[in-house]
Amino acid sequence: MSDWVNKYKKIVIFIVVLLFFCVLCFLPLKFVLEIPAIVCLKNNLDFVGQFIARYPWLATVAIVLFIIVLLVQNFSINSTTMKLMGIEFQLKNTERNVKIQVKNYLSTKRSVFVLYDEYDNYYDVINSMYDILLFLRKQLANFDNFSQTNNDCYKQIEGMIKEIGRFLTKYQSDYRRYYITKIERDSENFVSFKEIQNEYIQVTEMKNDFHKLNVEMKPYANFFGIDTDKWSDWY
Predict the structure, then answer these.
(1) Which residues contact 95 (CB under 8 A, 6 or more apart)?
(2) 203 vs 34, 170, 172, 235, CA distance in Å?
(3) Is residue 142 exposed (0-12), middle (13-18) or buried (19+ Cβ within 10 Å)?
(4) pLDDT digit string, tens, across residues 166-223
(5) Distance in angstroms between the alpha carbons of the first and the last residue of the chain
(6) Membrane-spanning residues where (predicted)?
(7) What residues contact 96, with CB distance under 8 A and at least 6 apart?
(8) Are the C-beta atoms of 113 and 222 separated by less than 8 Å?
(9) Residue 213 CB: number of other CB atoms within 10 A?
C-alpha cells in the first residue's frame, strides 16, 4: 500500500487540489470565507503581517536563516531533512553524499577490484566482500522516497549488490566451512593459507570467478571515481 502511495503521490495530490478548487467554484465566496479554517488562516496572516510591520528586522533575520538552511545542502549534515512549521526541507544532496561514502569505503577494498592469487587469503576476501555487501545495502536506505530510487547512483549500487551477492551465494558458505575445518584440523601444525586454499576442490573455478568479479566491478569503480590503477603494480 505504501509503495502505491509513493508511486502515485503526485497524482493523488493533484486530484485533491483539483477537487478543492472545484468545490470552491460551486460555493459562494461569502460562505467560503466563513469556513473556520479559512477564518483562522486569514487571522494568522493578518497577525503575521502586523508582526512584520512592527518588527521588520526580525523578518529579515528569519529570511536570512531560511536562505542559510537552503545553502547547507552543500555541507555534510547527519540529518537529510528538517521540518519547520510542518514544512520539510531537504538539507543535503542524498545522491552526492552516498557517492562520496561509497567512494571512500571502496577505495580501501582492493580485492573486490584487483585480486592477487599468490598473496590474498580467499577466506579474508570473502569476509570483506560480505562486509561490502552489508555496507552497500545500508546505503540504499538513504534513498528514502520512490523518486530517488530511479537515479544512476541507486542503480549502480544495486548492480554491485547483484554481482557480489551472486559470487557469495555460490562460494561463501562452502568455502568458509572448508577453511575453518582445515584450520581446526591442522591447528597443531603451521599450514599457510595458500596451501589450504589451493587444496579446495573448487579452487580453480572460484579463482576464475574472483577475476570475473574484478572485471565486472571496474565500471562501478569508474562511476564512483575509485582509482583502481593504484593497485595494478603492487607485486
Answers:
(1) 148, 151, 153, 154
(2) 80, 12, 13, 21
(3) middle
(4) 999 999 999 999 999 998 887 777 888 999 999 999 999 999 999 999 999 999 999 9
(5) 54
(6) 12-33, 53-75
(7) none
(8) no
(9) 20
CA dihedral 206, 215, 114, 105 (to 10 degrees): -110
The secondary structure element, H or E, covering residue 82 is: strand 81-84
pLDDT at 75 over 50: no
What is the maximum span of the chain, computed from C-alpha positions, in angstroms?
94
Which cell goes with 54? 512592527
pLDDT, average across residues 45-67 = 78
Q: Using alpha carbons only, how large is the chain's radius of gyration in Å?
A: 29
Which ranges of 26-90 would DSSP assign to H, the alpha helix?
Answer: 29-33, 36-54, 56-71
The letter for the amino acid at 37 is A
Average pLDDT over residues 136-150: 78
- Please answer whether residues 163 and 213 qualify as being in contact, where contact means their C-beta atoms are separated by less than 8 angstroms: yes
Q: Which of 229, 227, 224 is nearest to 96 (CA)?
A: 224
